[in-house]
Amino acid sequence: MVAVEWCFRLTSVALLHGLLRAASAAPVLEEEFYENLKLTPLPDGRLLTRFDFKTLLRDAAPRAPHTLAEEDEPQHYNLFPLALGQLLREHAVTELHLTLNAGQWNYAAWGQPEDSGVATGAELWAWMGESRAISVKDRWKGITNGLAGLFCATLGGLDVRRTVSPSVAFQPEGDIPSSTPHHLLYAPLPSESVCTENLTPFLKLLPCKSRSGVASLLNPHRLFDADWHGMGVHVTWEEGLGVMVRMNFVAVYNPTRLMGLQNKRDWSFRLLFDRSITRACPVATRSAIHVALPSEGNFRLEPTAHSNLGNIAIFDVSKVQEPLELSMKWPDESEFDHTSFAPSLSPPLTVRRVLTGAGQSQGALAVSLSNTNTETMRVAWVETMPWFIKFYLHTLEATIKGERRNDLVKLVTYAPTSSSSQAPTLLESHVTIPGNTTLRLTIDLEKSFISYTQHPPAAQRGWDLPGGIIAFTSHSSHRGEKEKELREQRIYTPILLVDLPTPDFSMPYNVIIMTSTLVTLLFGTIFNMLTRKFVWIKLHE
Amino acid sequence: MSTQEQEPTSHLQSDRTRRLTVASHWIVILLAIPLWWSVTNIERLSLPRSRVARIANKQLRSTINILVDEGDLRRDLEAEFEVRAQNFPQLGNHLDLRFISEQINPASSEVTYRVNLAKDPQESQVTLGDRSISFPAGNKPQEALVPQIAETLQALLLPPSTSAQELRVIQYAPRYRLAFTLLNEDASVGGAIMGWEIASAINRYLSSSLERLHVLHNFTIESQVQFHAPLAFDPDTADNGKEYVLDQERLKTFVNSAEWTLASSVSNDPVLHFVLFIPSAARRPLRIVQENGAPSKSNAFIVPQWGGIIIHNPPDHDHLNQYLTAPDLSAIFTTFRTQLLALLGVPQFPANVVDTGEGISSWNLDAMLRRRAAENTKGSLEALGSIVKLVDRIKGMPIKNDVKGDFIEALEELDQVYSSAVESPEAALLHSSRAHTLSSRAFFNPGMLAMLYFPAEHTYAVYTPLFAPAAVPLFVAIVREFKDWKKRRQDKTKKE
């Protein structure tokens, strides 16, 4: 992959230089834009489409937090999205990750995603340097509100009641300036759903919007029809390289459903996006489509790829003269056999997480981790719960086949909630899972009785609880680069719905009426007793 | 009363005790009413409304010293301006002109302008300096010069402006964002402008003007380039078929806010947009036409209080993409600068004056300071007046301490505007700006709305189940006592 990228970068840079020489005085390229679409047929007949848009602000550095009190330098951008750049500068953000996803990623069928951030709903985490002028928490508030406005999402709800600072599982993906101490803030919002109103502002941040290049395939009507879809914005800084914004949109399509009665896994751009690429994005340094070719089966990919690397077919969008319309067919298959697919992608670790207990006030959380490898695995387990869920830490229990093994769990952080601060609970621990076993973790919890004004509209639906996070901290058999990659992988469990004690919302009025009636009754009786004249009546016989 | 009746056995049954019981209930209720009133009443602090009216009646006056060396000329000018002050109420109401022969107190911050007569017969133009002006004396007698000098001075001190000019001036703010945007209508068809040397262009053509405007405003600068910025309409083809044209109606809907991401989300400072629009290679050249269909001289226009737009048709080089260097941007940025000055309301010089400082001199800066201070003062007074009116009209509107505090502080700042206007226009502007901020904050205070959504009727609805049934025995008791008393009086009179 790396070799391919380099090769492309060289040719396109040369091409661009040629073009620019023709125009007057070639400028220094300070910003670069790369776009890529990767299509991967999945063994279960689905198709993974991944749009990647990278904008690199070469040699730029995040704003130093100690300059926050001073006036910022003027911002001049060619390709970098100004609206996002302003937000990053205003709050001196070093690294930022925002994902908005709909649906639950199926690890068993689709494998580990390229980007770990597939949590259902919204998830935001950012690394920020300390500053005396404006505290990290105040800037976090500014970021969440700014992003909420930018992406039309209810991210403003990511306030102190949602925000935690985990110490494991979220390592910076880029570099962090060593001159200032940095803090991580993380907030999940599982109830957020992603839709067109989020995609439209997302597209406006791209230099070619959705009007040319790979991005022209982003048709909201079709994207939100996919089985799983999500978007992400990742800002990182790499020393010596610059500030990079990666924006991606991932959709898992089900061609067998889209084909209607035919029940085939054949796909084409027309079928998936109802569009084709007619024009190249003029500012993209590299614009390519990668199709991962299945290792088996008789398939036909049209048109012919511009180049091949291993089992990846590569199309260079900038070379395209006529509308590019890719399609892939399995001519021998009359119907896709859903039963045939073998769980070849079955991950080394599978996680199940459920809420147990029937009552409205008590319950327990049960997480079972199954290690399918023979080797022992060490992972980090992170749970963050809203303030109305209280864990009883002493009930945390690890069992293997009914046998207590609390020695396998090493607690890292436990930040309990308190109803006054309404800060969320954070539970982080290292868990060791022996090979070929299933480790079951349980912890009792209490559901708080919250004030009736704190309930959301449609309170009977219940509250969404964020999914648990399993992070691979290290892998015993791997070293160096590979280890870093593994460490950054996270698995998100499905989100949970919790039923809190819900009051009858007409209750305050009922209470007023009832109390008033009782008070009046009492008052009337006493008053009448006091003012009534009691007299003796002689009865004549 | 009757023979069946016996005397009550306890003193509780006496008429007197019963009456006392009823009376004490009523006394408690009557005493409790003021308490109940005060705890359920909306907090409405009194506002110093008379002060608003007093300030509103005052004229904002600035003192200006005019230093003239020639004694004859000074006397003539003084007499001329006395006449003018009656003819032009603006001049008489707002400016105190003092003609002096020498600087009274060089340390004072009062504004002093120097009027010179250039004796050099070669000199034929009126030239402006830093708070000084020099008129060519020529060979004409001095009396002939006086009306001309007075006319020029008046135009400099109180620049006339048309309502169209005034309408496009953006409301005063201590800080503006200047957002420069290079918009390619469609870069994918080629012939687009892929970038511009914006930073050095701003340095070369704009920064000196921005620095001079520093006494009035601060600026935050940002820029972006867009490659797909479609118009909301298709431009018409010209009669000759070779050009595309925009008439005046089209200019009104030119800004396509739905597709152009120009909005800034990080601050509340007002934004002035400067857009360089590059029509798509397929629709070139694009020109602005006047009402009568004749091509307009300039391809730039101002959107009032929003910003300036320049339509730039780059020379065609076989549809190759181009890059604008700082020298290429010279004409464009000169236009942007003119648009900026117009949007900020920098007054233009009288026609006969030669300008040496890019359209900004101490003369029109001072005039702007005075005008902005007056505008802010007016705006602030209007806001305060509206608060008073609103509070009078809506009885359920609470006025809490924060609103009252802002209100009083705004009044204090306004007092300072009047006292400092005499001496320093900068201080007057600062105070007026603060007064304007405070009065708008008081006006938009969310606390003033609270009760509008919970009217008094709701309170009654909630408490009626308590008050109505409890009131019935109380009233019945008092009616019964009254009847009793009446009956006894009748009995008494009968007996007599």
Automatic annotation (TrEMBL), chain A:
User: Is Membrane among this UniProt entry's keywords?
Assistant: yes
Signal peptide, first to last residue: 1-25
Q: Name the Pfam families on file.
A: Gpi16
InterPro entries, per the entry? PIG-T
- Span-the-membrane segments of this chain are 509-530
Q: What processes does the entry annotate via GO biological process terms?
A: attachment of GPI anchor to protein
Alphabetical keyword list: Membrane, Signal, Transmembrane, Transmembrane helix
List the GO cellular component terms: GPI-anchor transamidase complex
Q: What protein am I looking at?
A: GPI transamidase component PIG-T
Automatic annotation (TrEMBL), chain B:
Assigned keywords, A-Z: Endoplasmic reticulum, Glycoprotein, GPI-anchor biosynthesis, Membrane, Transmembrane, Transmembrane helix
Source species, domain of life: Eukaryota
Where along the sequence do coiled-coil regions lie? none
Q: Which Pfam families match?
A: PIG-S
The places in or outside the cell where this protein is found are: Endoplasmic reticulum membrane
Q: In which pathway does it act?
A: Glycolipid biosynthesis; glycosylphosphatidylinositol-anchor biosynthesis
The record's PANTHER family line, in alphabetical order, gives: GPI TRANSAMIDASE COMPONENT PIG-S
The protein's name is GPI transamidase component PIG-S
Q: Look up and give the organism this protein is from.
A: Botryobasidium botryosum (strain FD-172 SS1)
